[in-house]
Amino acid sequence: MASTGSGEGERRAQGLPRREPWHPPAPGPVPPGPVPPVPGPQAAAPLQPLRAGIGRRGGPARTRATGSAAARARLRLGGRARGPAARRREVDAGARQTLPIVHAGPPGPSTRGRPAMPFPALAPVPERFGEHTQGSLFDVVKVAIAILDTSARVVLWSPAAEELLGWPSELLVGRRIDELLDDDAQVVRTRAAIQETLRTGRWHGLAELRHREGAGVPVEARISLLVDGDGTPFLQVALAEARIVRAVERDLAVRDALFEQSPLGIAVLDADLRYTAVNQTLADMNGVTVEEHVGRTTGETLPERAADEITAIQRQVLATGEPVIDVTLASPVTARGGFRSISYSRMTDRSGRVLGISGTVMDVTERYRAVAKVEHARRRLSLLNEFGSRVGDLLDASRIAQELASAVVPRLSDHAAVILLQAVAHGDDLPRHGHDRRTSLLQLGTASVQDGPEVEVMLRRGARITFAEDSSCGRVLRTGVPELLSGTDELNDVTYPGDPKMQAAHDLGVHGMLVVPLRARGIVIGLLLVSRAGYREGFDRDDLAFTVELADRAGSSLDNARLYARERTAALTLQRTLLPQQVPQPTGVEVAYRYVPGSIGTEVGGDWFDVIPLPGDRTALVVGDVMGHGLRAAATMGRLRTAVRTLAGLDLPPDVLLRHVHELTDDLAQSPDEALLATCIYAVFDPATARLVVAKAGHIPPVLIVPREPAEEPTHTGGPLPGGVGRVLDLPSGAPLGVGGVPFESIELKIPEGSLLALCTDGLVESRDKDLDVGLGRLLTVLEEPYASIQQACEAVLGTMEQGREPDDVALLLARLGHGQAGTPTAGWTLPAEPTAVSRARRLVRATLAEWGIERLTDTAELLVSELVTNSVRYASAPIGVRLTLGDTLLVEISDPLPDPPKERHAAEADEGGRGLELVRRLALRWGARAEGIGKVVWFEQALTGMDPDET
Fold first, then answer.
1. CA–CA distance, 821 with 587 (Å, rounded to integer)
2. Which range (54-68, 306-320, 694-708) has the least confidence?
3. Which distant-in-sequence residues (6+ apart) come within 8 Å of 312 by Cβ?
4. d(CA 101, CA 727)
5. What does the alpha-carbon distance between residue 453 and residue 58 come to, in Å, rounded to a whole number?
6. Could you tell me the pLDDT band of residue 96, with boundaries at 50, 70 and 90?
7. CA distances from 647 to 610, 614, 661, 745, 927 (A)
8. Could you give phi then psi for residue 36, rounded to 5 degrees?
């Protein structure tokens, strides 16, 4: 059994060969040439304290060694006989042996193609010496250390070597390293490497050692010669796993290649944001050498303004750890103007300690300019599309001009003015002659990036523009060729010398201007003036071409607005001509009305209203709406209104009148292929009976406001409206005129004194997104309030029209219904259908006229009353009514239940009868008949002057 501590039992258990006795080398200097093994078992004794001083796995008692502590302290590189110079000469002479299975390279520069200064350059060590570190490169490439004597026996075996090969130091210390080699050839090569180290002082190369578990471990070995203070040589062997070393070398080579050959500028900065390494690309970009970058901050290498922005980004990345990627900045180097894309990210080691930041810089000037050019074109296309959408539905030249000026400021210019021919603004025909200084121009569109008195002088909206014929405005108006102006001399030539507007432009710093024609069908209809001021760069040819395109689109819209204005003016003129020129104020009725044409952009519609005095102080109120717009609708409205007014003169009931108008629609239609469609409401009010008869043909129902308290006296014209309670009259709808198939029906209402009747067209109460009931309810709410006059009520109704309503015409008719004028004499009787009724009627008429003081009318009145009563007695079988009303004329009404109206006959000379109605026609001022209830009323009027109509 082996002695305690000898390790022989462990060696037998592990299958290792028996340990050979070892003899220390003789004292003294090492001679040159191959050094033979030094025999002697006493050699291990001097290294025993070294072995006891290193503990297991890094502790004080881990590794065994020989030699005294003093000797260990005196170890140094190289041997006594050969100094470093001698060894270098031998290396240069090639006096080195290599193992066949390894490739030992000279200890010169790297063969990986790295630059003289490897990447990254060494930075100052931030830690204090002696401070514990984690996550360093030594954790990746673990270096195992072994100390051998000159006979290749293990004197010291480090814990890293145990971890690399699995052999504990207890088993290897004192044994030859040959025992870890698989064959004799490797032993020979190893001994040759030892001899070369003893001769040259160092050796490195590849080898393969056997792991404790039996597998071969390729390692990269470096052997150095150590000599203690007594001159005893030892061999220090540094071992690292070859696979890991090659991987690290490959990564470093890739990094070096990327760093130096990359077209991107690369920089590495420490935790103080000082450059530790930059590549040549970045140095060229910044115009500062690589050496001048290292150790300096960005603020010390770049101009102040650019450095502040970049330094702020670097500090943000260092503090937060959030990378910044592809931030485009202007180039900080004046000599190489352009744009750069910078990216920064924070660097940490494997333990998470912040080392600094790394960044890449790329010149993106061409890309930026290409993107900027595309974006510039996109913005201008967007401006064209936006302007087209904003003016596409506009038909007002003033609004289009303002939209054009607003569209180009500030995206294209700082100031803009749109100047139009007066004919365009007013919808007149374009001039057929050329433009000269007498051409009337109006500045209708203005826009500016600022306000002030100078802007007010230069861009006063509505100002009349004058110019000299040889000025820029004059030339562009005559030729239609745009001009690009720059400089004081050219800007003074815009209008005329001494123009205050141009002096104001100089005060505003205007340095460039475009004068562009607005054209339509080859005719210049105006000018677009855009200008830039201050530090903004001047106009170029691209700006001019774009402005011309924008002006051409605006010119088409402006010409459409001019044509529309001309047609609209004609239609409005026709419509206003066809509407009532004077609205009467009949007895017992106070009327107020409003007509509002559709908004600009909407053609004139066919809305109309009418107030028609009827016999017997009665009044017809009419509101209608012809479907369609434009001149034809206005003309049809005029014809329809004439038909209604003519039929109203026949004193027909409302439903009968609408039926007759419906029968005329085929003749009133605009063309045989287009049927006439119209809605209408027709109401007749009799103040004597306070009755209202209404019928409608598909129209909006009327609204009636009844006073909350009954009036004690007749309503006075022009008095205040007390307000009241409103309701929508429920009428049979009836079909629109021209549709047919639905009968028209009338209803009769008893109207309280002072009630307010409202008739209107759909433009007042209809909107796109709300029901008709909402509009009618709003109308009721407004009219239920008290007002100082009926005119004020009209204004209040129009003031509540919704902004989102259909832009249609509006016709509004308000009528305050009373019981006749105060103090109007009225008398009436009911007589039986008997022959005695004739004489009684004459007596009653004679007495009444004498009481009223108009006896001069008695003879004629008695004669005509007797004729009409006689007809009623002869043909009617129910009571007969007689009523006299003294107003501007004497009105006499005879009613009976017979519905058939009387027919006038022409009696022959021999006929005894048939002359009653002829007498009425000849002697009365006016006469007629109307249906009332189930019967009729025959009436006539006499002038109060006492003159017979035939005497005039």
1. 6
2. 54-68
3. none
4. 116
5. 89
6. very low
7. 13, 11, 8, 17, 16
8. -75, 160
Residue 927 tokens read as: 């006469």
Residue 610, pLDDT score: 92
In sequence order, what DSSP letters do the residues of 704-768 get, joined into one string? EEE-SS--SSPPPTTPPB---EEEE------PPBTT-SS----EEEE--TTEEEEEE-GGGT-BS
Q: Which amino acid is at 287?
A: G
**What string of H, E and C letters represents the secondary structure of 630-687?**
CHHHHHHHHHHHHHHHHHHCCCCCHHHHHHHHHHCHHHHCCECCECCCEEEEEEEEEC
Distances (CA, A) of 428 to 476, 478, 630: 22, 20, 18
Ranges of H-type helices in 47-158: 48-52, 69-73, 84-92
CA atoms within 13 A on the CB side of 23: 8
Contacts of 63 (CB under 8 A, 6+ apart): 50, 51, 54, 55, 156, 157, 158, 159, 169, 173
* Torsion angle of C-alpha atoms 298, 303, 308, 311, degrees rounded to 10: -20
Say how far apart CA 628 and CA 704 lie, in whole Å: 29
Q: Alpha helix (H) ranges present in 751-857?
A: 772-783, 790-799, 836-852
SS3 347: strand
CB contact set of 722 (below 8 Å; sequence gap of 6+): 707, 708, 709, 754, 786
Pairing of the two strands 265-270 and 354-363: antiparallel
Cβ-based neighbours of 760, under 8 Å, separated by 6 or more: 623, 700, 779, 810, 811, 812, 813
- The number of residues making up the chain comes to 952
Q: At 47, phi and psi to the nearest 5? A: -90, 0
DSSP code, position 19: P
pTM for the whole structure: 0.52
Task: Dump pLDDT digits (tens) for 346-368.
Answer: 999 878 889 999 999 998 888 88
Nearest to 737 by CA among 649, 635, 626, 632: 626
Taking CA atoms, 827 is separated from 617, 852, 884, 891, 925, in Å, by: 14, 11, 5, 10, 20
Rg for the chain, CA atoms, rounded: 59
What's the DSSP call for residue 510?
E
Signed CA dihedral, 845, 850, 854, 858: sign only: positive
Q: 605, 808 in Cβ contact below 8 A?
A: yes
Rounded Cα gap, residues 837 and 565, in angstroms: 67
Helix, strand, coil content of the chain in percent (nearest 5): 35, 25, 40
